[in-house]
Amino acid sequence: MGDFFVSTAELAATIGTALAPVVNDVRRRAVYDAADRVLPTARWRDHAASRTLSTPQAGSIVVYCAHGHNVSQLAAAEWRAAGHDARVLAGGIAAWEAAGLPTFSKSALPGRDESKPSRWVTRVRPKIDRIACPWLISRFIDREAVFTFVEPAQVLEVARESGAIAYDVEGAPFTHDGPLCSFDTLIRAFGLADPHLDALALIVRGADTARLDLAPEAAGLLAVSLGVSALAGGDDHAALALGFPVYDALYAWHRLAVAETHNWPAKTGARGSV
Fold this sequence. Notes:
Elements (H helix, E strand, L loop, with lengths): L4 E2 L1 H5 L9 E4 L3 H6 L2 E2 L4 E2 L16 E4 L5 H12 L4 E4 L2 H7 L5 E2 L13 E5 L5 H13 L4 E5 L4 H8 L2 E2 L15 H8 L5 H14 L9 H15 L3 H22 L17
Parallel strand pairs: 1-6, 2-4, 2-5, 5-6, 8-9, 8-10
Antiparallel strand pairs: 3-7
Helix pairs in contact: 5-7, 5-10, 8-9, 8-10, 9-10
């Protein structure tokens, strides 16, 4: 759509991947406070003070307001004048929601603070749910989120002492609920309406709760997750680094390649198979 604007489709193509830009909600504060839904990973920033703000992480910036008019254009112009790669979401959040693209409920994040990363704590030795949940949080809720791993008996106490959000342990705000795993619980709590996340959740649930019949891919995720854990060698953050690309790939597969097949021998000139 040109250098100054990014379309909803262009931005949506990066959401759920490591290539997503920093997303800033620059609606006027009163408008932002009155609304509960925000774009994936968005943080509020004062559009009138954009040039004085450093970017949370290196990379490009996308800003949005209600409709993509003067508020977001001023913010983008200020960031660009300060040397940043900043663009405006064409049509703002109104166009994003009209396209049926995912948003999340900012009020679902306990103690949400626009000025600093959220902190999360769970059990050591993550394999499936405890890698899937940080992936979901980082890709859709808070790209700056900080994750801590402690012994199971200490999770809730560490959460109380540090102000972190406990997950995937009994008594935590986000954990298993009947047949649902913590990944399901997070999707539901934050209102992330996305059919591709729903499909991924079924795979995660099948692998994490020994229900490999739920999705054909569940057995594969289980095997890969155990391999990731073995490769990480007890380093929990290394397990996240190794595991995130697995979920990036599964999410991209369902969005972009679920109908593609793989056949051998390959037929000359055939399309849709590798």
